[in-house]
Amino acid sequence: MKTIAVTGASGRVGVRVAQELQQQGYEVIALDTRRSDKLRCKQVTVNLSDLGQVISGIHGADAIVHLGAIPSPTGYTYEHIFANNVNSTYNVLEAASILGIQKAVIASSESSYGFCWAPTPFDPHYLPVDEAHPQIPQECYGLSKIVNEQTAEMFHRRNGMQVVAMRYSMVTTDEDLKWHRQTFADPSRYKNILWSYIHVDDAVSATIAALTADGLGYVSLGITSSDTLSDWETERLLAEFYPEVRELRKRFEGREALVSNELAGRLLNWHPVRSWADEE
Fold first, then answer.
1. How far is 230 from 162, CA to CA, in rounded Å?
2. Spatial contact of 44 and 67, defined as CB atoms under 8 Å apart
3. What residues contact residue 179 under an 8 Å CB cut-off, 6+ apart?
4. pLDDT values of the chain reduced to their tens digit, one per residue, 280 residues
5. Could you tell me if residue 141 is left (phi over 0), alpha (psi between -120 and 50 degrees) or otherwise beta?
């Protein structure tokens, strides 16, 4: 691979992925609805809902990292969020297929499990949550991510394209983590995301590891920190906030995460290295 197309390249993860790829010697084509003054590479303004624009935009790329999406079920009407996220992912993978591109990494989300934005909160079926846990969202954003994962799997079946769907937890920066630490007096604040997060540095390294890996076919991976976003020990969080979850598949040590990154570690030889505790 020499040239990588990155959609959503002006976003929090996208701009950092593009910069890191350049530092590693790759040529980058950055695609987004707006240009970024942080990037020093070819930038293309593109509407991902238009297949022709996507084909033109990624022409010449050897692989693609698709991060462009509306990142939550807020700020737009629900039908627009769903249509935008689903259509853009289909178009990116269809364009890659037409152009003979055989590697793609796409942004999925831990929201696909359904806990984060559920109007009617519910407990995990078991803990730790892993990639086999049922995906049962109650809203448009989580549903769009499930459809995108199924779309990716279809393209792998159709032409053998390797597609890795990254189920990112809440992506945080150093500044975010400093703010989050100030909220720890109320440990219920992050209950709905199972106190999970991923530092942007680790999200970037995982994304590039998925891009450069071979032989994965189609796979979805949980991309999350190894610890919780809380100063309480995990067993205490469970006893206080999830006492009804009876199927605990391991004993949690210290602040060990409730969402697993084990599969990503095994397939990508990747492990997160950043923690909110680094900011102490």
1. 36
2. no
3. none
4. 999 999 999 999 999 999 999 999 999 999 999 999 999 999 999 999 999 999 999 999 999 999 999 999 999 999 999 999 999 999 999 999 999 999 999 999 999 999 999 999 999 999 999 999 999 999 999 999 999 999 999 999 999 999 999 999 999 999 999 999 999 999 999 999 999 999 999 999 999 999 999 999 999 999 999 999 999 999 999 999 999 999 999 999 999 999 999 999 999 999 999 999 986 5
5. alpha
Peptide linkage before 128 cis (omega within 30 of 0): yes
* Encoded tokens for 86: 């689903």
The ranges assigned to domains in the chain are: 3-268
Instruction: Tell whether domain 3-268 is in CATH 3.20.20.70.
Output: no
Give the number of other Cβ atoms within 10 Å of residue 262's Cβ.
15
Residues 6+ apart with CB under 8 A from 75: none
According to DSSP, the β-strands at 162-168 and 103-109 are: parallel
Helix residue ranges per DSSP H, 114-173? 140-159
